[in-house]
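Hey all, sorry for the wall of text incoming. These are the four entities for the joint prediction.
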Amino acid sequence: MFSSDPNAMGMLIRKLESIAFLSEEERQAIQNLPIRVQALRARQDIVRDGDRPSQCCLVLEGWAVRYKLLSEGRRQILSFHIPGDIPDLQGLHLHTMDHSLATLTKATVAFIPHESLLDLTTRYPTLAGIFWRETLIDAAIFREWVTSMGRRSACERIAHLFCELYLRLEAVGLASEHRCEMLVTQIELSDALGLTSVHINRVLKDLRQRELITLKSRNLTIEAWNELTRTSDFDPTYLHQRRPVA
Amino acid sequence: MFSSDPNAMGMLIRKLESIAFLSEEERQAIQNLPIRVQALRARQDIVRDGDRPSQCCLVLEGWAVRYKLLSEGRRQILSFHIPGDIPDLQGLHLHTMDHSLATLTKATVAFIPHESLLDLTTRYPTLAGIFWRETLIDAAIFREWVTSMGRRSACERIAHLFCELYLRLEAVGLASEHRCEMLVTQIELSDALGLTSVHINRVLKDLRQRELITLKSRNLTIEAWNELTRTSDFDPTYLHQRRPVA
DNA sequence: AGGAACCATTCACATAGGTTTCCTCTTTTG
DNA sequence: CAAAAGAGGAAACCTATGTGAATGGTTCCT
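and here's what came out:
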């Protein structure tokens, strides 16, 4: 399938506009990127550790994760990705994958050749800066995760992650009123936060009892945003979103 | 002081050449960057969380750290920086600091105006790609740290960090034969690895007893490289260095 | 609709790593 | 060069989180 689908790139544009200003010409240039759209099953690898991909993957629908595998079956989830994200943008200048990328849920993705993206960055230096910025925000999120894993308690980590994901979903129009889908199992949460699923379960129970959140069949409601951000030390600056957040 | 110092930029060039190829013209362009060299005391902030800097900081001598402060005096060190590093390169496209940068030891740094760097990236798109790559490697290191903090034991984390720092120092000519300076206290190690200094001390004792390392008055010798990399699951791919490593 | 596979939940028990405290050895600095 | 500050080291004790195992509830195939 080609870029004829008028909406495929809408998600990417919405995402980029959440972190930078795009001119009409730049929006057009993005719309004209050649893409190949593909539907994927849940829990399917897209690129693997060690691969040398020649295209980037844009998430259109569903969630994806990046992860590393360690000895003895240990797994670390490095990031969650939602529609509008390009989880392997770093591939443009880092030629060997140092981790894997997979779908979490059933998903639709679009593949964009590196070649076309590099050409775009040459023709539109401002867009190059915006894509660069996107990878820098990715890094800023890793820094925040390092901070969580290093110095925050289990409870703070979970609360912090929920705040982050809510704001990211809201920025691309996939959440509002402190409600969003939370398409991750407790096992996935544990692999992302460096905990066990048993402990995730304990802490979720506590967060529910304190009436900070409601979480049922993949639907999260943050019942007390201010208290949740306070207890988890959450400050959205690191997301570097364009519009100031409540 | 201006770029008249013929050696100030040598460190940056050596660093960039450890991750990419530079043409003679590009080397010249870098040499011509205007810089202001400054000597700093140990443990001195260079840029603070929330600042909006207009220049980047290149480390010439000594070590630096990036860190975040949390409530109740908690601190998380996000990265260690050695000569040749530009710890706040992300400032080029991320205008508000989401963490602080400070010296660890007495240090010499060079400040380069964002303006000059942005101009350089416009005139030399290949150099833009190389600086972008540098920030992507920075992110790759964060991913590895997330993995360490999430799924590696205290012993594995320390061993992994030593391997990483050794290779980075070696890449810019500041280490060889599995020996290097390790200009960090046990407290700083603990704040970087999400542990306490007491536990760092316990684990170092163990690593010494197992004759994997020697660490005395800031001098580290890795006595058994292969075993150390094996026990810590260390794979240097994530450093994306140009030359293959032993 | 029925089963297989996955997920959430809970319990009893185990441990890696944290806390507090104290002492000694270096390093810095006046 | 001596005092002060900082860093390494270590013991006793504590706790947040891990382990393993069992049960019932969901979701997804066929």
